[in-house]
Amino acid sequence: MHFDIQPIGVIHSPYKQKFAIPRQPRLVPEARAKLVFCDAFNREEFVRGIEEFSHLWLLFRFHETADKGYSALVRPPRLGGNERKGVFATRATFRPNGIGMSAVKLEGVEYKNGQLALLLSGIDLLDGTPIVDIKPYLPYSDALSDAAAGFADTRPQTAMTVAFSEQAEAFINAQHTYPELKAFITNVLKQDPRPAYKKKQASTQSYGMNLYDFNIRWQVDGEHNYVLEVAHIRAD
Asked: What is the dihedral of CA 175, 178, 182, 185, to 10 degrees?
């Protein structure tokens, strides 16, 4: 049996590339996003009463990897990429139907210039991700205090520290569009977004990532991140 799924909206996220996206939602609470509804669902009736809920489940499509197929066995990052698990025993992106789920915080509902949107935080989705469904998060049903979580039974923790150069500090302080930008960058880097094999290298490593409209360059030396520069993304 085959069926089609119609997107109901699209995420406008600070994460412009897969690199540096947190492994799970709400690990970086400063990550704010907007879910903009598609034309067929761009009516306030579809979300009437949604403000009564503090959190939502988003069901979405891994749109950048869905066409790359799937594998029965995958290497979870939490295991350092060294051990294989069944894809249905993980939250890996390479899935038979390319469907993901994310529990995020609802910050508000916006209806501006005829466009309906949900304001969200704690997001872990790539910019442009198509949303296929929204469901209220129900604490009495969805939060199971006695649940076992296998190899991912605790929140991921690192000992990574973060410091900023004078240029980076000055740039962040001069912009006023994103008041939580420094905290956002700090918490993204504390998650240590590097691939597992990079974390084993002893030499100083340099990286770059795009968040919101900015390019961030930093170095990693052991367990220390040093943000070298924050700048506007150059238009090609």
From this structure: -120
